[in-house]
Amino acid sequence: MAKPAGDPSGLSTGAAVGDARAGVWAAAAAVLLPLLWWSAREARMYSWLALLAIIAALSFHTLIMRPSPRAWVGLWLAELALLYSHNTGPIVVLWLNLAVLIVWLAARSLSKPDVRVWLFGQIGVGLLWLPYLLGRFLLLPEANAGLQNTTLLTPQALFNLWRAFWETPWERILFGAEASWPFLLLLLVLAILLPYRWKGARWLLLHAAVWIAGIWIGLAILGNEFHGRYLVVAAPFIAVLAGMAIARLPVAALRWTAGVVLLAVFGANFVYNLDPPFRHDDARTLVQHYADTLAAGDSVIAWSYADRYELAYYWDRLHPAARRITLPEGADLEAVLPLLPSSGDVALNVWYTQRADYRGMLDCLLSSGTSQPPEVLDVYGMSSRLYRSPSLQAPQFVPANIQVMQGQESLAQIDQLGELPSQSADQALCLPVMLSLLQPVNADLKAAVIVHNALGWEIARADAPFATADQRTTSAAQMGELLAAFALLRLPAGTPSGEYQVTLRVYDELMQPSGFPLRQNGMPVLGRDTALGTWTVASGNWGDSAVDLPVALAQPVGDLTLIAHDVVPATLRNGDALRLTLLWQGTGTLPPLLLQAVDESWQIEILPETMEGINLTRDWREGIIPAGAQSGEAVLRLPDGAELARFTIESVPAEYAILQAMSRLRRCLMASAA
Length: 674
Hints:
Blueprint: H1 7-17, H2 20-32, H3 34-40, H4 46-65, H5 69-85, H6 89-107, H7 115-135, H8 140-143, H9 155-166, H10 170-175, H11 181-193, H12 199-222, H13 235-247, H14 252-272, H15 283-293, E1 299-303, H16 304-318, E2 323-327, H17 333-336, E3 346-351, H18 361-367, E4 375-379, E5 382-387, E6 397-406, E7 409-418, E8 423-424, E9 429-437, E10 446-452, E11 458-465, E12 482-489, E13 498-507, E14 518-520, E15 523-524, E16 530-538, E17 551-557, E18 560-565, E19 570-573, E20 577-585, E21 588-589, E22 593-597, E23 603-606, E24 612-613, E25 616-624, E26 632-637, E27 643-650, H19 657-673
Parallel strand pairs: 1-2, 1-3, 8-16, 19-27
Antiparallel strand pairs: 3-5, 4-5, 6-7, 6-14, 7-9, 9-12, 10-11, 10-13, 13-16, 14-15, 17-18, 18-20, 20-25, 21-24, 22-23, 22-26, 26-27
């Protein structure tokens, strides 16, 4: 880990721009500044960035006062290291070039520092940075285009910015304690006591203000949320300014009192951070977990951003046996598939601050064919999803011709769909949906892939956003671009073998939450869902699947045991459809159910759609309350007379034959769609 960029640099900077006393107090403030301690505990470049910024600033001030070869070399090396250390480094370098222009204009001379040497050095630094500039830096807008979450510039945001230097972590400021008066008092004292007549103090204040403003503007352009760790580059300068302000206090007792206050602020943060609710991203624990649980034949997959900043650091120190696979940011399906392992368990590393897979492509691919959801381990700021022996089969595509309409205009067209393979009911299915934009869209389109049983009920659904490979949604994509949604379908436990109809709905949560009108093969689609085809599944091996129905029991019925159902007391009217879902364990013929009026004036037999139960069987049934049923109570019973539920029947004088006809029509439509 980097150590806090505090004492030597703070002492040098304070002494350079002030006097010896200012240097001592600047060093003390830098040593005790909570933000520097917090950043030093992260395996990232922020503390290194702060040290480089100080070296660059000291070299700059030496050059404008007493140029020397050492200062020139220090400036160039610091600038080059800043450019390669972090994407905020160019802000420091650009400002130093603007600052030297201000110096030349103010002095009306180009000799201090020498303009020819300055330009020669900056051109050299730029040429050495050129590979990174072209290979990575210019791709930042695309890499950060998936989600927009800019922090607005408000008085509260500015005050939070000031608090971030003295109170850590940043999440505590945003979600924890309210701002307190000591931070405001500290700001006022610093503003009053700052020695503005010292040119060095003015330069330090200008450096810090410009760098912070530049970072804020850059993040706003990229659409990134501001975080307190971005302030680390300016933290030493704030510490030096605080030290200079303390040094101006006329009485030694006041200076030592200020020192005690600094120590108290540091101590409070140190104690709080021993076990804070908001901690550093705990990548170390996750890598240790990989080392403890994964074998040489297993793999860990991570996008390159998480690998660069977190995993790689600890991987070389904790030595997990599993293979680490790094995927390039912005890689699409064709580029990712060849990189996936061919065997073993696979752990997918997910970093919460990362946007590399907003559309969930990897989770969909790794889950496809598996019988159980991934095993999830969460640590602070990061999680791991472990897929046990995934099939890792590439999805097969079939052509499609589905237009997404708005009025008489086509917004987009679905060109390809994942096919519906025959597989066992317990296996998940990854179904990609490929969409091309026909015109700019100001909505974020999503795909809802829905599975229906023979009764027409929705029994499974997967919602997935359409996004490009670099995670831009439809509102940010351009006309003609190809986007994909990765819908992951899992049938509920106990789903019997058979044929199930699959439909597609395209919607936007704000503009069209119920779905856009669709045209398939040039013909308008009735309703908002279009049929994708029939999904044929065989009996699954459900193992110890969790019971997801509200009423659990253990009621023997012949060779079967009823272990759960969703039948609860309710009020029904004559002509209403009574929907039932039951879960049976064992092998045998599913029994009929009897719904009977308490006064025995009417009764109906509710038969199963699936006749045989195997291992674990989900049983969907539907019964229609007779049109002539009178008001009163009705009881739902098993064949042995055991009561499942009682219902209150309210008789309404009307003709309900049309309802039964509509129910039959719905079944016919579902069958014809297949």
